[in-house]
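Q&A log
Question type: sequence-to-structure
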Amino acid sequence: MKFRDNIKKYRSLIFPVIALFLINGCSESESQTADDPWLKAEQIKAQIVVPEFPDTTFNIVDFGAEEGGEIKNTDAFRKAIAAASEAGGGTVLVPNGTFLTGAIHLQSNVNLHLEDDATILFSQDPDDYLPVVFTRWEGMELMNYSSFIYANGKENIAITGNGTLDGNASNEHWWPWKGNVEDGWEEGQPNQFAGRDSLHVLNAEQVPPEERVFGDGFYLRPNFIQFYNSKNILISGVTLLRSPMWNVHPVLSENITVDGIHIETLGPNNDGVNPESSKNVLITNSYFDTGDDCIAIKSGRNQDGRRIAVPSENIVIENSVMKEGHGGIVMGSEISGGVRNVFARNIQMDSPNLDRVLRIKTSSRRGGITENIYLKDIEVGQYKEAAIRANMFYEPPGDYMPTIRNIVVENLTVKQGGKYGILIEAYEESPVTGLKVINSSIEGVEIPMEVNHARDMEFENFQINGQKITP
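Response status: OK
Response body:
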């Protein structure tokens, strides 16, 4: 099985562990990291070790699954996962063919593995994602539809293989709930607006999340994959298509590897990977062509974000391709718990429908601290709005001043820019602080820089439209 072969590749992560030991053994390690923050990126990678599983296989066909995409196999998936869990763990195998199902709930020590020509086709019937589960929707906790693949409080879980996860969403199913005409909604049809407004009120009033019961009749779309309060997670090799909403959404989770996945889904809010209030995350060797941000790092919305108060931190993004999307590397907007220590390197971006390269979106309703964001070796063919965009006015104001500081962009090359090179909109009393751009060039922009309230900017060998840029 290819997954077992790939395990040998992942074991190579042991070598950075040795490097980490050597670095930590040096009395000057802290100063070294300060001089070269990418040493910290290596330390983070060294801490992230992929889960391993017992050498036992549970084929869903042996539990009653039938391929063809017509018969629902929800019960067969449930039985195979339960059998693997009861045996102490193993691989639940999805063989070649198309298998229709409702929600899949993973258990600890279980690897859901798809053969190369296997497709898990998810039902378009919302009832197949009930009963409601404890989840987070746009940064707010509640009881809502299950994500298509879901786990809560689990350890050592994986989705692997070169098969396809097809969310089966379209302008006829799931996407119209957004309430946009371009996504299939028509006047008089139900949408998410009333449910979303109600959830905002419950969040503001801090009603206990278990009492925020939504699901049927509220039209809050489920995410594709959500792992809640879990650890030791691997998602590898799979292709994700036609998601109802966010694609990969770990929440309050840690030790996460996303390796070699392919996301191609242009529906509303179809973000690629959304680590939220999560720690020690590696996203590598992946492809993103999305209807929203390619990678959006989050930490809770408003009152819930401040109540839970868990940042997203120690996130490494590398060796990936990003096409269409509202942004390539994004922080926010659900960012009230803060974001820190994000490293993105060796990324290729290119699309006339890619709005921004680096984007930080927040507001004084959100609050939170965004800090220590490092980008390096970013090649961009084309983007639409701005290469570097920081916005503290993403939503109406509130009483919680946001902070954005220590952003370093190195070796950024843009062939054809959009309207702006750099666009910053911040509060006078909370300027963006410590933006550095080094050894970079942006060509073809209309307005090189528009900066409202920034402090301690540093530019070294930085050109826009062939002209040297100074703070």
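Response note: Residues 1-23 have pLDDT under 50 and may be disordered.
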